[in-house]
Design goal:
The protein is α/β, with parallel strands linked by helices and 559 residues long. It folds into four domains: 3-94, no CATH class; 98-163, no CATH class; 192-362, Rossmann fold (3-Layer(aba) Sandwich), CATH 3.40.50; 370-558, Rossmann fold (3-Layer(aba) Sandwich). 35% of the residues lie in helices and 18% in strands. The chain has 20 helices and 22 strands. A seven-stranded parallel β-sheet has the order 11-12-10-13-14-9-15, sandwiched between helices. It is globular. The model has no long low-confidence stretch (mean pLDDT 87).
Length: 559
């Protein structure tokens, strides 16, 4: 294609503009997220940004500066600005410039750049991490208990550390995958990308593997990837996830697809505190304390057994207190699983330094084309605010404006019409506010699951939905995470949490499991026009665009 037809424009401020309607955009869209972050995604031109962290993650996943620049040179209408070329080359160079290695039992920080260690040793904020060095050190001795903290400190000044110091093997636990699932007798085998992710994480058992993040969409089987990594290691394992339902699903998957016995897999929750060779707990459990300034009661779980692997499910939701203990257990292998590296608290660098860099990533649309996840269509339906609420909205503060717009009573009729148009489909209605959800439940005659719903009742309703006895289910934000409803093919989002990309990933993921009858999935967001809610809906749209989904905006009159 001629330069004028190319889809990208690389600018000196490190942004990359991608023209949606240009030839080659679809191919460029699949490559850009490997080394750049999506910032804005209006209808015609999307904006990506190059950051040091996005480039370090690319380097960790094996991308070179040459490959990135070759792609940009081939896809950009104008020459790549010299300062951008230099920054890509410099940030790629910086990954691996500092290495943590082990020699003769000592933990050593080494560098291939003359003088760098000397400058680090003289920096007042960094001295505390090392034994007193020589005047011109060729290596710095790192205090063992500060292995995590020194990596955090160095990434903050622009130097990511490649951790090659190795890991404790952990207590052995031998198991194998079944060739047929226990539950229904159907054949079972790892999908090619699941097997590849496990092998890349393991890295042949060398120190180059054993810590990092696997990024896959909901519905692509991240749980199976975790099991594949554990199978490579054959070691005892601690798994942390988002809620008790997710704990049960992990346990069910392990027993269904491996030859582990029920006594080998323990739940450590409010209901049961069984510690076994594989122990599954929740972030809420781990961060529980009796009073605000007290000790975390269950942190001892990290040392309860000789874990060879700690798996952090939905690692983008890892609570801040767990970063502390994660910094202390750097000698154990660590695997993060997520659909998005974006954290709403901006602590992506903490995940990079303490859990590990991105090890494996497959764009959603590629898995969709291969048939591993369902084809999905995203529609935002915009409607006016109910007339009588105009004054209340204008006189409210920003947080209350968001809630007024989110609970707009006019949404009830829109949802009613959408549900009627999908008779025969499996429909999930998802929202944030309980009064709104209960009003919908009463109007539609459908059950509703909230945080107050007992776990046993939730499991019964989920089972009825999975088995087709129930075609319409209303869930609060408890339905965002780790709920396995493979036949849901329509989701209607009536309210959300301030434009969270994490939340959008999870909610779309509820309907992405491939359907037995090949039906496409439809994801609706019902949004009040010209409101705070519409502003945040624009932010959420970023995630869907980032994953390659078309995002259609319709007026309520078109429904």
């Amino acid at each position: 294609m001629s330069t004028s037809q190319r889809p990208l424009t690389v600018q000196g401020d490190r942004t990359i503009l991608a023209e949606v309607h240009a030839e080659g955009y679809t191919e460029a869209r699949d490559v850009l997220p490997l080394f750049a972050e999506l910032e804005k995604s209006p209808e015609h031109v999307h904006t990506y940004r190059l950051t040091p962290l996005s480039i370090w993650n690319a380097a960790a996943a094996g991308l070179t500066a040459e490959r990135i620049l070759k792609f940009l040179d081939e896809q950009s209408r104008y020459p790549v600005p010299p300062n951008v070329r230099r920054e890509i080359e410099e940030n790629i160079r910086r990954f691996g410039l500092l290495r943590l290695e082990r020699d003769d039992g000592k933990l050593l920080l080494r560098s291939s750049e003359d003088g760098l260690l000397e400058r680090i040793a003289k920096t007042s904020d960094l001295k505390q991490y090392f034994e007193k060095p020589e005047k011109k050190p060729t290596e710095l001795i790192v205090l063992e208990e500060l292995r995590g903290e020194v990596k955090q400190a160095l990434i903050r000044i622009g130097y990511p550390v490649e951790d090659l110091a190795g890991y404790t093997a952990g207590a052995e636990m031998r198991f194998d995958f079944r060739s047929e699932m226990l539950g229904n007798g159907a054949p079972f085998a790892l999908r090619p990308y699941q097997l590849e992710a496990g092998e890349i994480f393991y890295a042949g058992g060398t120190e180059r593997g054993g810590s990092g993040v696997v990024v896959l969409p909901c519905g692509a089987g991240k749980t199976i990837v975790g099991m594949a990594c554990l199978h490579q290691l054959q070691t005892q394992c601690l798994i942390l996830t988002t809620n008790t339902i997710a704990v049960r699903q992990w346990r069910n998957e392990l027993l269904d697809k491996t030859d582990l016995r029920p006594e080998d897999v323990g739940e450590y929750t409010g209901d049961s505190k069984t510690i076994a060779p594989v122990t599954i707990s929740t972030y809420q459990m781990i961060t529980y304390r009796r009073r605000k300034t007290g000790e975390f009661t269950h942190f001892a779980l990290f040392g309860a057994r000789d874990w060879g692997l700690v798996i952090y499910d939905e690692v983008h939701l890892l609570p801040a207190p767990v970063f502390r203990v994660t910094a202390e257990i750097q000698a154990r292998r660590r695997l993060g699983l997520t659909a998005t590296l974006v954290r709403e608290d901006g602590r992506e660098d903490e995940v990079f330094s303490l859990i590990g860099p991105k090890k494996y990533d497959v764009p959603w649309k590629i898995l969709e084309r291969q048939g591993w996840i369902a084809d999905a269509h995203c529609v935002e339906v915009r409607l006016p605010l109910e007339q009588g609420l105009g004054f209340d909205y204008m006189s409210a503060g920003s947080r209350d404006r968001f809630r007024i717009a989110s609970e707009n009573p006019e949404k009830l009729d829109v949802v009613r019409r959408l549900v009627a148009s999908h008779a025969g489909d499996r429909v999930l209605i998802i929202g944030q506010y309980l009064d709104q959800l209960e009003a919908l439940a009463e109007d539609l005659g459908a059950p509703v699951i909230t945080g107050r719903t007992p776990n046993k009742e939730r499991e019964v309703l989920y089972k009825q939905f999975r088995e087709g006895d129930l075609n319409l289910l209303i869930v609060s934000k408890v339905g965002n995470f780790a709920v396995d409803l493979p036949d849901a093919n329509v989701a209607i989002q009536v309210s959300g949490t301030f434009g969270s990309r994490q939340e959008e990933a999870q909610r779309l993921g509820r309907i992405l499991r491939p359907k037995s009858d090949k039906r496409p999935a439809v994801f609706y967001s019902v949004v009040t026009r010209d409101s705070r809610e519409e502003h945040f809906a624009n932010n959420r749209q970023l995630f869907l665009t980032e994953q390659g989904y078309t995002y259609e905006i319709k007026d309520v009159t078109e429904i």
